[in-house]
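Dear H.,

Thanks for agreeing to be a second pair of eyes. The structure we're designing against is below in C-alpha cell form, covering all 363 positions.
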C-alpha cells in the first residue's frame, strides 16, 4: 500500500517537552504554507505518480486542527486535485482538544476521514499543566465526546512518567480514556535537553520511573479488550492504525511538508526542516539539493531495520528473514523476552518493556 503523510507545521504554543518541528503561525503564514505545499506536490508529481494512488492518509503535526475550516477546504482540495484520494481505506487527522471544533469534525466526516487522533496526554489538570498543554481535562473529555458522537474512530495519545504522576492518576486517565476511545497510544515522556521540561527535570530518571506506568498499561488495557499490537499502541482487534503499520513494514510513504520524511522504493528523504527553509525551497521549485537527507539503505541496514520495526509489533518477524548474526544474539537472550520463538520471533509483554535494551544488543 502507499501511504500519504502531510506535516502541518503549526502549533498555538510550544508544549514544554516537544521537540517536533512546529511553530506559532504569523499572520498569513498558514496560507503561504498551503501555497508552498501545492508547489512541493507539483515539483515532485512526475516521480510520485510512479506509485499507486494512496490508500492511507495521515495528516499530522503540529496541530492540524489549528487550520480554520476554510483553510482545511483549500488544503484538502489540493490533496484531492493531485492524489485523487478515491482509494482511501483509512484517513486519520491529528487534533488538539483546545482547537478542535464541531465544524472541523463535520468537515472531516463529510470528506472521508475515518479517524481522529487527539492529543489528550493526561486527564489530570496538574499533569497537563506540567506538560505545558493548552487544554484542561474537561476540554479533553468534551473533545473526545465530540469525536465519539460523530461516529469517527478516536485515538487518544497519553503520556506517562510525567513528573508528579502516580500510578493512581495514570490508572484514572487510562480508565476514563477507554470509555470513549477506540485506540490508545501511550508514550513515555522523553526529556530532551533543549526543551523547557528537559532543562527543568534534567536529573530525573524517567526511564526508571516509566517502567511501572508502562507495565500497568500492559496489564490494564488488554483486560479491557485494548490489545497491545505495537510497543506504544493498544486497540481492540480491527481498530489498529493501518497507516502506522506501513512504517513498521517498510511500505511506501509519501511525506509532504516541512521536516516530513518519505520512504519510497527503499530510499529515505527528509524535507527541509523548518518553514523558512521550506519556503526558500518553494521559491526554487524544490530542487533536490534542498532535501536535508537522501539515503538509500544498503540491504543489510534495511534488513536490520526491518527486524527491529517488526519486533515492535505483535506480529513479530519470520525467523527466515532475520540475518544469522542477529539470530545468534536473539538466541542468547532470556526466553521470557519472547512469546513465540519458532517460525516467528515475537516479543512478550516483558520483551516490549525492554525493547530499547534488545535493540541496543542487536545494533
Ligand atoms: S501540540 Fe504537539 S506538536 Fe504542538 S507543541 Fe505540543 S506536543 Fe509539540
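And this is the sequence the design step returned. I haven't edited it by hand at all.
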Amino acid at each position: 500500500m502507499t501511504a500519504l503523510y502531510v506535516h502541518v507545521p503549526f502549533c498555538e504554543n510550544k508544549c514544554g517537552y516537544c521537540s517536533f518541528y512546529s511553530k506559532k503561525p504569523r499572520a498569513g503564514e498558514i496560507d503561504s504554507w498551503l501555497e508552498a505545499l501545492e508547489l512541493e506536490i507539483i515539483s515532485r508529481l512526475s516521480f510520485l505518480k510512479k506509485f499507486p494512488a494512496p490508500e492511507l492518509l495521515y495528516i499530522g503535526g503540529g496541530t492540524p486542527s489549528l487550520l480554520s475550516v476554510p483553510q482545511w477546504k483549500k488544503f484538502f482540495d489540493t490533496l484531492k486535485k493531485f492524489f485523487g484520494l478515491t482509494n482511501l481505506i483509512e484517513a486519520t487527522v491529528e487534533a488538539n482538544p483546545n482547537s478542535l471544533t464541531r465544524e472541523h469534525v463535520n468537515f472531516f466526516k463529510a470528506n472521508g476521514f475515518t479517524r481522529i487522533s487527539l492529543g489528550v496526554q493526561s486527564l489530570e489538570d496538574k499533569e497537563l499543566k506540567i506538560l505545558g498543554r493548552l487544554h484542561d481535562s474537561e476540554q479533553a473529555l468534551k473533545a473526545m465526546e465530540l469525536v465519539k458522537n460523530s461516529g469517527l474512530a478516536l485515538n487518544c495519545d497519553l503520556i506517562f512518567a510525567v513528573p508528579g504522576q502516580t500510578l493512581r492518576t495514570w490508572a484514572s486517565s487510562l480508565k476514563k480514556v477507554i470509555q470513549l476511545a477506540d485506540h490508545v497510544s501511550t508514550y513515555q515522556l522523553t526529556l530532551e535537553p533543549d526543551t523547557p521540561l528537559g532543562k527543568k527535570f534534567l536529573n530525573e530518571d524517567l526511564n526508571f520511573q516509566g517502567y511501572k506506568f508502562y507495565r500497568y498499561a500492559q496489564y490494564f488495557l488488554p483486560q479491557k479488550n485494548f490489545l497491545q499490537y505495537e510497543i506504544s499502541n493498544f486497540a481492540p482487534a480491527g481498530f489498529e492504525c493501518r497507516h502506522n503499520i506501513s512504517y513498521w513494514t517498510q511500505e511506501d510513504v509519501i511525506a509532504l511538508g516541512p521536516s516530513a520524511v518519505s520512504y519510497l522504493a527503499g530510499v529515505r528523504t527528509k524535507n527541509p526542516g523548518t518553514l523558512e527553509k521550506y519556503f526558500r525551497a518553494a521559491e526554487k521549485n524544490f530542487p533536490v539539493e534542498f532535501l536535508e537527507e537522501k539515503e538509500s539503505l544498503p540491504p543489510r541496514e534495511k534488513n536490520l531495520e526491518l527486524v527491529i520495526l517488526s519486533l515492535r509489533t505483535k506480529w513479530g518477524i519470520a525467523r527466515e528473514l532475520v540475518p544469522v548474526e542477529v539470530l545468534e544474539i536473539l538466541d542468547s537472550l532470556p526466553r521470557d523476552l519472547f512469546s513465540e520463538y519458532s517460525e516467528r520471533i515475537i516479543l512478550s509483554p516483558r520483551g516490549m518493556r525492554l525493547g530499547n535494551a534488545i535493540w541496543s544488543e542487536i545494533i
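Two observations from my side: The chain has a mean pLDDT of 95. The pocket of iron/sulfur cluster is lined by residues 11, 14-15, 18, 20, 22, 61-63, 96, 119 (CB under 6 Å).

Warmly,
E.
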